[in-house]
Design goal:
Blueprint (H helix, E strand, L loop, with lengths): L1 H7 L11 H28 L8 H15 L4 H12 L8 E2 L10 E2 L6 H13 L1 H23 L5 H14 L2 H5 L6 H15 L6 H17 L1 H17 L9 H29 L8 H9 L1 H8 L19 H6 L4 H4 L2 H9 L1 H11 L1 H16 L10 H7 L7 H8 L2 H4 L4 H25 L4 H24 L4 H8 L1 H18 L2
Antiparallel strand pairs: 1-2
Helix pairs in contact: 2-6, 2-7, 3-5, 5-6, 6-7, 6-9, 7-26, 9-10, 9-11, 9-12, 9-24, 10-11, 10-12, 11-12, 11-24, 13-14, 13-18, 14-18, 18-19, 19-24, 23-26, 24-25, 24-26
Length: about 500
């Protein structure tokens, strides 16, 4: 049995087949990964279309611009097309900028939507929307397979399929693996860090490359992922103090190189955008909006803003302290500002937030703690109920007529998908999984690898809540993207301790 499991685990090892047995076991492993991925595709199939969010349109536009630029389309045409589409976009995530002698540009490229992920959205969505969903599900399935091999080496098949079924039926995983958004990569980061830092010697070269590329992609696909990965790398450094949890030095270096590559890719995009369009990419002033709702930036605006000379000073007196009103309401200061003012608000975003936080530290710390705690407990599927608004407001801006019709007929758009009931189930399963994890770690002997994986996953839940709670409004989507790691971990641990009890 042990030899068979070892052979089954040979997927991706990259050795030359030496017998029919090796071919069959490798094929069996591939079929297992595909089966796991198909399980996660079920909700999208039931819905009648992959799940789409407001931001999907921004990623699609970013990917389209990159592909067309590579294909040789003149920058002037891209500027004209995107400037025209901005007037139709509800979020106005890219803004026109008057030409000036300093940068010679007429267009500010949006920074809040990764062009790297946008390429996948544009290409896959253009062929068949389900392709991106299946691709992401395969990536998750393969990462989960590599992980279960380390925790349950005697027989990885049963825990793998059990975890796949539980995740598909009672966690947010299938909704995020089939989501046309990069959120799923936030949860893949701790898995890849675990594999590189604690199981690298058991991985083939191709498997290490898979983990490295996935980790780098996670950093490049969304700014919040950069902060989450940085937090996890910091925790790994502290784990080095305890010999039982010490990551391998080479694995830590490889992980840092992947993280660095992802961060460099973000800056590389900014430089290329400046070279082509003559202006640095701009982002939405989310920090300023967060500081207004938390209080410090609002106090700065209304009391002593003029001495700092920030553009946001023009918002006084504030109509509302609601961050969404500031950003997206037609009367909100950012939404209603002219293009030049929007760019100035974006450029000053971090400075405004930090200045206000330093002037009102008690208020900022209290608000950040409150938001982090609130974010930790928000992981339902409630934001998927925005599908009808997405269909009306954003989908017509990038979907073909056929896709738009199919999306409009989906259960999410028509209101027939039971997101509320499923959210209740997700909360119950997550709570039970958390209790199971704590019980096993407190009362059962586990391997060093199992303990390290558990710490990384639990740390991910906390770090993700802090990052998203402090820097943005608490939303169910942010924590739901990682909470499925708990049931996955709990399932693996149950089989792990049973295999250890049974012995070799």
């Amino acid at each position: 049995m042990k030899n068979e499991a070892s052979s089954v685990a040979s997927i991706g090892v990259g050795v030359s087949p030496q017998s029919d047995t090796v071919n069959m076991t490798t094929l069996k492993a591939l079929m297992l990964v595909v089966t796991f991925a198909v399980m996660q595709m079920l909700p999208a199939a039931i819905n009648g279309f992959p799940f789409v969010f407001f931001d999907t349109e921004g990623y699609h536009k970013a990917g389209e611009a990159v592909v067309q630029t590579i294909a040789g389309k003149p920058a002037e045409e891209l500027i004209a097309e995107n400037t025209g589409s901005q007037a139709q976009s509800a979020n106005e995530e890219a803004t026109a900028q008057p030409g000036n002698s300093e940068n010679g540009g007429t267009f500010a490229v949006p920074m809040s939507r990764s062009p790297y992920y946008g390429i996948f959205v544009y290409i896959f969505f253009g062929v068949q929307p389900y392709l991106l969903a299946f691709f992401q599900s395969l990536v998750v399935g393969y990462a989960a397979w590599l992980t279960v091999r380390q925790l349950c080496p005697v027989d990885p098949v049963k825990p793998y399929l059990a975890a796949g079924a539980i995740c598909a039926l009672a966690t947010p995983l299938p909704y995020f693996s089939t989501y046309t958004m990069p959120d799923i990569f936030a949860a893949l980061a701790p898995i890849c860090l675990f594999l590189l830092c604690y199981s690298r010697k058991n991985l083939s070269v191709l498997q290490q490359v898979f983990c490295w590329v996935t980790l780098a992609a996670a950093a490049a696909f969304h700014n919040s992922h950069i902060l989450v990965i940085f937090g996890l790398l910091t925790i790994l450094l502290f784990m080095s103090i305890w010999p039982r949890l010490r990551p391998t030095f080479s694995g830590l270096l490889v992980s840092c190189s992947a993280f660095g590559a992802g961060v460099i890719a973000v800056f590389l995009f900014a430089y290329v955008a400046f070279t082509i369009f003559g202006s640095w990419p701009q982002s939405i002033p989310f920090l300023t909006a967060r500081g207004i709702e938390d209080g410090p930036v609002a106090e700065l605006i209304e009391n002593d803003c003029e001495q700092h000379g920030f553009t946001i000073c023009g918002a006084a007196p504030l109509q509302s302290r609601d961050s969404q009103h500031f950003l997206w309401h037609p009367d909100g200061f950012f939404r209603s500002s002219d293009p030049v003012t929007k760019l100035q608000l974006s450029n000053e975003d971090a400075s405004v937030f930090l200045t206000a936080a330093l002037e009102y530290p008690g208020m900022q710390v209290a608000a950040s703690l409150k938001n982090s705690v609130e974010q930790f407990g928000l992981f339902g599927l409630y934001e998927f109920e925005t599908a009808k608004r997405v269909f009306l407001e954003q989908a017509p801006l990038f979907m073909s007529e056929v896709d738009l019709k199919n999306y409009g007929d989906s259960k999410a758009v028509t209101g027939a998908y039971p997101f509320v009931a499923l959210s209740t189930l997700i909360y119950v399963v997550a709570a039970f999984s958390l209790m199971t994890v704590f019980y096993i770690y407190a009362s059962r002997p586990v391997s060093d690898a199992a303990l390290a994986l558990g710490i990384l996953i639990l740390a991910t839940l906390v770090v993700n809540a802090v990052v998203c709670g402090v820097l943005s409004d608490p939303h169910h989507r942010y924590q739901a993207r990682v909470v499925w790691l708990l049931p996955l971990l709990a399932t693996y641990l149950v089989f792990h301790i049973n295999q250890r009890r049974a012995g070799p």
